[in-house]
C-alpha cells in the first residue's frame, strides 16, 4: 500500500520555505518588513493561489537563498520529528507500506530530512530551485504552483510511472491534500489538524486527526485494514 505524507504542518509544525527564508534574511535590515510580507504571501503562493505580483515577490525572496541556508535548516530540523512519527514510519515499513512525501516545499531540504528519517529520497516530490553554484537564482516550473493541477496531478503522474500502484492514502493539513482524495486519486485521506487547523470537511474514507497520535492511529488502522482485505482476496483467489 502507498502512504503519502504532506510535509509542512503535517510532519513539521511550520511552513519550511518560510523558515529557510528566515535564515536567509537574518542579517537583512528590512527583515521585519519582509518577514511580515512573507507571512501574508507564502501560504497563498505555496497553495497556487498567489497573484503575479505575489509570485514575483516570492521569486525575489528565493534568490536570497544560499546552499548553506538550506544546510543549516536541515541541521536544525533533523532531530525535530516527533517520536510518534518515527514509530509510525517503522510500523508502516513493517506492514510493507511504501512511504511517499509530496509537498509544496522544496526538495533541497525535504530529501535530506526524509533520508534522516528513514524515507527514501526517491519517494519525495516537491518544488525545486534553480542554482548557480551556491546561489538560488530562480524556481523550477512546477505543477504544484497550480491549484487546478497540484498534488492530484503529481499522484497521477506517479501512477503512470508505476511508482504508486495501489489504492493509496494521503495525509495532510491543506485543501491541496484533501483534493487528491475528493478528486479520486487516492481512496483514503487523513486531515492533519494538529499543527494548522483549516476546518476542512471530512467524508467517507476521509478522517480528521486533532493530534499527532490520532493521525498515526488512523493511518495504521487504514493500512492494517487494507492488509487484511488484500490477504482475504488472495485466499479467495487461491
From TrEMBL:
<dbReference type="InterPro" id="IPR023214">
    <property type="entry name" value="HAD_sf"/>
</dbReference>
<dbReference type="InterPro" id="IPR050582">
    <property type="entry name" value="HAD-like_SerB"/>
</dbReference>
<protein>
    <recommendedName>
        <fullName>phosphoserine phosphatase</fullName>
        <ecNumber>3.1.3.3</ecNumber>
    </recommendedName>
</protein>
<keyword id="KW-0378">Hydrolase</keyword>
<dbReference type="GO" id="GO:0005737">
    <property type="term" value="C:cytoplasm"/>
</dbReference>
<keyword id="KW-0479">Metal-binding</keyword>
<dbReference type="GO" id="GO:0036424">
    <property type="term" value="F:L-phosphoserine phosphatase activity"/>
</dbReference>
<dbReference type="InterPro" id="IPR036412">
    <property type="entry name" value="HAD-like_sf"/>
</dbReference>
<keyword id="KW-0460">Magnesium</keyword>
<dbReference type="Pfam" id="PF12710">
    <property type="entry name" value="HAD"/>
</dbReference>
<dbReference type="GO" id="GO:0006564">
    <property type="term" value="P:L-serine biosynthetic process"/>
</dbReference>
<keyword id="KW-0718">Serine biosynthesis</keyword>
<dbReference type="GO" id="GO:0000287">
    <property type="term" value="F:magnesium ion binding"/>
</dbReference>
<keyword id="KW-0028">Amino-acid biosynthesis</keyword>
<comment type="pathway">
    <text>Amino-acid biosynthesis; L-serine biosynthesis; L-serine from 3-phospho-D-glycerate: step 3/3.</text>
</comment>
